[in-house]
Amino acid sequence: MATVVELKPIREQNEDVLGDKKTPPPKVPSLCSMRYGIALLTHFSNFTLIAQNSIVSITMVAMVNNTDYQPHLNSSTEVLPTDLNGDQHEAAKHLSPKAPVYNWSPQTQGFIFSSAQYGMMLMQGPAGFLAGKIGTKKVVGIALLASSLLTLCIPVATSLGLGFLLATRAIQGLIQGTGYGGQFALWQRWAPPNERSRLCSIALSGMILGTFAVLLVGGVIIEALGWPFVFYIFGAVGCACCLLWFILVYDDPFSHPWISDPEKEYILSSLHQQVSSEKQSLPIKAMLRSVPLWSMCLCTMTHQWLVNTFIVYTPTYISSVFKVNIRDNGFLSSLPFIVAWAVGILGGQLADFLLRKNFRLVTVRKVITILGNIPPAALIVALPYVQSSYITTITFLTLSCGISPLCQSGVYINALDIAPRYASLLMGSSRGLAHSSAVLVPIVGGFFLNQYSELGWRNFFFLLFAINQFGLIIYLVFGKADVQEWAKERTLTRL
């Protein structure tokens, strides 16, 4: 006679708490709750990591002697007003005389941009798996500290030579990839299903805020102190963030010393059907054959192509078209990202609102993903055709970048829907695959822009549109939002 043996969850204590729960208790208010506190701390963790990763996007304008690589501009291009446009040679006089300048071609700059992305691409999947085993607190905390220390070292590495700079950024990319991928294990244990969109959008929006902060204050710091101090300041900020992380973040509600009992009960009970098992092996073959999983990964990657274009090339594009000084370039480049930060958080609210109104989960995920892909890609393709007007150009850039984070509540968190037990590994792996675009975008961009600037931008943006829409179509056709068979709890039987 067969007997069924249930697989135990990771923590036996959690099993005791969850064993008698048939239905979740009433929802605990989100205001001042520990789960939203964890989301906020993860927000600042992502802020730190992306800021340190994208510093070079704004400092590159000051690090490179642009007189050797003048862009070809249309004679009808509108110049900026006097207060926003300045003679770049005059602006250079205000830069710190101690800050060195290098003769790097656009292709060399592309390699510098992409050098940190190889590690991020490789480490996010393994980091998600590792965090599921030893805990997010250790994985992300150590990554934060190491990334911050390396950020402090980048000016020295640059002075030693291009090879040292590339090596330092490559190592930093491995560490930052560990920090990114390791965070997703938190939401397996902290995010009730009906709050996932909001919690994840709050956490992921930290990446956008980090880019905004670097672009906004980076130019000011460069003009006042020199480009090395951008690395010093954000490296110090990272060390402070690391301290807060180790003090306040815990891997799950059960082990958190300051969480209220009602909130702990609410979270654990809402997740009692989705707790992973140590004894249950990974269904790797089923994962590799899963079309919904592959469609999610592909759409995430093609959307990240769009996002990484914004992060890497917004300051360069504005400088190329309008020839603004570094301070004003930073201000104009940051505008799209503060809009994107707000839209990313509001997108999570919108997704959960639609779910509360009984819209199908798959419909919500796909509609949000459509809004985060089609309008931004169309607007960015239009940029070369409106560059004669700086107001229209900045408006299109702001709208394009600002709308794209809606995907944070769409395809980006789809792994929590189709495979909640393996969400940490799958979200890390999908983001790791998506970071292949962060490697390719600077290289492809450098290839196009090294030839002829105006035509290069146009062709680069058309390629972006084609790649982005291809991934979206695949996701719309094959994407799912129900738990896949291979991701459901399995039981062991004995005769």
TrEMBL record:
It is a multi-pass membrane protein. The chain crosses the membrane at residues 139-164, 170-187, 199-222, 228-250, 334-355, 367-385, 391-413, 433-453, 459-478. Keywords: Cell membrane, Glycoprotein, Ion transport, Membrane, Sodium, Sodium transport, Symport, Transmembrane, Transmembrane helix, Transport. The keyword Transport applies. It catalyses: 3 Na(+)(out) + phosphate(out) = 3 Na(+)(in) + phosphate(in). It comes from the Eukaryota. Signal peptide: none annotated. One of its GO terms (biological process) is sodium ion transport. One of its GO terms (cellular component) is apical plasma membrane. Its main location: membrane. GO terms for molecular function: efflux transmembrane transporter activity; symporter activity; toxin transmembrane transporter activity; urate transmembrane transporter activity; voltage-gated monoatomic anion channel activity; xenobiotic transmembrane transporter activity. It is found in: Apical cell membrane. Pfam families: MFS_1. Residues 38-483 form the Major facilitator superfamily (MFS) profile domain. Belongs to the major facilitator superfamily. Sodium/anion cotransporter family. PANTHER family: SODIUM-DEPENDENT PHOSPHATE TRANSPORT PROTEIN 4, SOLUTE CARRIER FAMILY 17. This is Slc17a3 protein. It comes from Phodopus roborovskii.
